[in-house]
# Entry
Amino acid sequence: MSDNQVLDAIHARRSVREFEDRDVPDEIIEKIIEAGTWAPSGLNNQPWRFIVVKKGEKKGALAKLTHYGHIIESAPVCILVFLDAKASYDRTKDIMAIGACNQNILLGAHSLGLGGVWLGEILKKKSDVKELLQAPASYELMAVLALGYPTQKKRTSSRKDARGVTFNP
Amino acid sequence: MSDNQVLDAIHARRSVREFEDRDVPDEIIEKIIEAGTWAPSGLNNQPWRFIVVKKGEKKGALAKLTHYGHIIESAPVCILVFLDAKASYDRTKDIMAIGACNQNILLGAHSLGLGGVWLGEILKKKSDVKELLQAPASYELMAVLALGYPTQKKRTSSRKDARGVTFNP
# Structure
């Protein structure tokens, strides 16, 4: 730990896949999503949209759409992040903006004592997800962020190599 | 300000486009890039690559490749972020991972007293950028992050609306 909580959070955040059987209050979920919306986006177009799925029938059905369904089953809350074609102006930049948004959500969650994991395999079934949740036609699923209170402190794994940095070529 | 420096940084970070005429030490640049590499990526493929351009001839030439060249001229350091096709496994997920990486870099820089801006218009000239910097053939430019010490404290603008959140549809 240093006196820089931001770098500490960036370093200490890990994917969490098992959660306590404890609800996350809506005001915490809203605070975390709001953190996501502070991400930068090209022309400030904010192309992200969110659908929150908590315990219940639809979460069970969502879990069936991915090999990682047990994680969705365990997580008390899933934040589904969509790209809204109506807000899009440049697909590459919009997808990057959503990546930045997701990272804010994961860091924000971590800073509030939650853990989570960014699920991507479920994108194979993105049409089924849209149908299940009756999402607007212009929404395209980009990620499912499964969140909750971690069952135990994750052990910090060793530092990754900072690959491929070239100074002043 | 709260006691949560992470959420504070997420909220307080703004695009900074004018910089003091003061170099950023290499160890700070490396620390910031390392923060970027702690972003999550699909299958942990870490598809990001970086080229750092500091004051000098090539930064001048880089500035000529965008309408926002004055920002590159003012910034003592530009971190160019590339997607490496050799590391790619899913273009959408890789681009999102790079967005998360960029956000870590911007938040890390902010936490260390620097400011910066994510430049995207220059992607129109991504081939020229690659040629200028003699980047490997497999690199594709995703963003230029222009960084430095801000000339003055940015005024915090009002809160954005958290758009498009739907709970339990």
Remarks:
- The longest strand of chain B covers residues 139-148.
- The mean pLDDT of chain B is 93.
